[in-house]
Specification:
The chain has 481 residues and is α/β, with parallel strands linked by helices. It contains 22 helices and 12 strands. Among the domains are: 261 residues, Rossmann fold, CATH 3.40.50.10420; 72 residues, no CATH class. Keywords: 4Fe-4S, Electron transport, Iron, Iron-sulfur, Metal-binding, Repeat, Transport.
């Protein structure tokens, strides 16, 4: 784990994607799952005549948050503190993990239960707690599967999307303590029951719970978590101490703003009209729920992202994963190829910005896209992901402008040739003569492999052969009999 946590890719995307493309079972699992969620979403979104108006409202509210973020953070801290919570501030992942580890140690426990949280994954909290001798038990079913498999999540909403039922049954049989293997099948009900029995004792004995938050209301100091299983509700009500790790962009100005997002989020994420469990809590209440409430507000590159007038729209993200479910690239390579806890189109623009321009392999993520635009059409808060991808690509080019490169040299040579009509015509004639041997033995209009340095092109695409006749030649000869 680095100072920014688990959002730095350790391998360039093209290399990682090549490995995943060779796994047909992975592609089958991804296609089945993403298409199921995508179809459910389309049905429930189609029920709302004002869906586009809701998207516009959601984008406007989040843009207002980004414009007034420092003031809203101060307002949230004051309201949460007045309600009995203790607010902590963390500049990066390392500092956030240190704060949470210290708070857990103060309780004297060596085990915590966790609600599914992208923020805690981002900062690498589980690894930090383990290094401190504290066991973190994931209670979300998909997160539990990934944890038992000693794996990493590959989807924002469905972390175990890369597994099928048979694979999950095998993981439970091999890794889940106390499971009755003789009664365990790969039926969803049987798998859920096994997880329920495993987690029940954890819920009843836990003294500390750790959560994230889908939204934080500046006006009231309220935190909001939406979920589908009820495990979050158990974590939020039973333990004595609750620690919530919240990205600073999760704010909404007023409680009334929540109405918009409780329509946008469930439809975009799970294809439901509303989440089965929507939990809200404000500070502490005597004799009801946790009696110690801590909120850790995490920056971790968000301030730098906010400073970019084009890229800052990535901070509108409400972690619904709709962009992943429609992305043709994600569907074929899965989340692990992105090397970050934020995979897919949103990860391709969010991770590089949060880690900065010198973040190693993250520089390749803006190229992990066909720019088809499906992600923008699906995004409930209208993040123009293709626009940001092109912007980040341009920023990468500008950062290396002036340095010698084969591509820049080739483009300069082409510019020189194409600035003069006679040079251009001569180049076309030479290209046709060079392509003539390649056409022998049948009609061919492209070549799959060229020698270096042109192999840089044909390594990922075919090279078209020059036309047998140019337009100028056709035009000049069309009047002849």
């Amino acid at each position: 784990m680095t100072g920014t946590g688990n959002i730095v890719a350790r391998q360039p995307f093209p290399q990682a994607a090549k490995v995943r493309l060779a796994d047909p079972q992975l592609r089958s699992n991804l296609r089945r799952a993403t298409h199921t969620i995508r179809d459910k979403r389309l049905r429930v979104v189609g029920e709302l005549p004002d869906w586009e108006a809701l998207r516009v409202s959601g984008a406007a509210i989040k843009d207002d948050v980004l414009a007034r973020l420092p003031d809203l953070l101060d307002q949230f801290e004051a309201a949460a503190t007045a309600a009995g919570a203790t607010v902590h501030w963390a500049r990066d992942a390392e500092e956030a993990c240190a704060v949470v580890t210290r708070l857990v140690r103060q309780t004297g426990t060596d085990e915590v239960v966790k609600i599914k949280s992208m923020a805690t994954q981002e900062i690498g909290l589980n690894e930090a707690l383990e290094a401190a001798g504290i066991a973190a038990v994931e209670t979300d079913l998909a997160e539990l599967i990934v944890q038992l498999a000693d794996d990493q999540p590959s989807h924002i909403l469905v972390p175990a999307i890369h597994y099928n039922r048979r694979q999950i049954r095998d993981i439970f049989a091999e890794r889940m303590p106390g499971v009755d293997v003789s009664a365990l099948t790969d039926e969803p009900a049987a798998l859920a029951e096994a997880a329920r029995r495993h987690l029940r004792a954890k819920f009843l004995s836990a003294r500390v719970a750790i959560s994230g938050a889908n939204f934080a209301i500046a006006e009231t100091g309220t935190l909001v978590v939406v979920e589908s299983e009820g495990n979050g509700r158990m974590c939020l009500t039973l333990p004595e101490t609750l620690i919530s790790v919240v990205g600073i962009e999760k704010l909404l100005p007023t409680f009334g703003d929540l109405e918009v997002f409780l329509q946008l989020l469930p439809r975009s994420s799970t294809g439901e009209r509303m989440n089965p469990y929507t939990s809200m809590w404000t500070g502490v209440s005597d004799g009801d729920g946790p009696q110690q409430m801590h909120i850790v507000l995490v920056d971790n590159g968000r301030t730098e992202t906010r400073a970019d007038p084009v890229g800052r729209q990535a901070l509108r993200c409400i972690r619904c994963s709709a962009c992943l479910n429609v992305c043709p690239v994600y569907e074929r390579v899965g989340g692990h190829a992105y090397g970050s806890v934020y995979p897919g189109p949103i990860g391709a623009i969010l991770s590089p910005q949060m880690t900065g321009p010198d973040a190693g392999a993250n520089r390749t993520l803006p190229y992990a896209s066909t720019l088809c635009g499906a992600c923008f059409e699906a995004c409930p808060v209208r993040i123009d992901i293709p626009e940001v991808l092109v912007h980040l690509r341009q920023r990468g080019v500008d950062a290396h402008r002036g340095r010698p490169s084969a591509e820049r040299t080739a483009m300069g040579a082409m510019s020189w040739v194409m600035r003069d009509r006679r040079r251009y015509a001569a180049a076309l004639r030479a290209a046709r003569r060079g392509a003539a041997p390649l056409r022998l033995g049948g009609r061919r209009d492209h070549v799959r492999h060229l020698p270096w340095p042109l192999s840089g092109w044909t390594g990922t695409r075919d090279a078209p052969l020059p036309a047998a006749q140019t337009f100028r030649e056709w035009w000049a000869g069309r009047g002849r009999g």
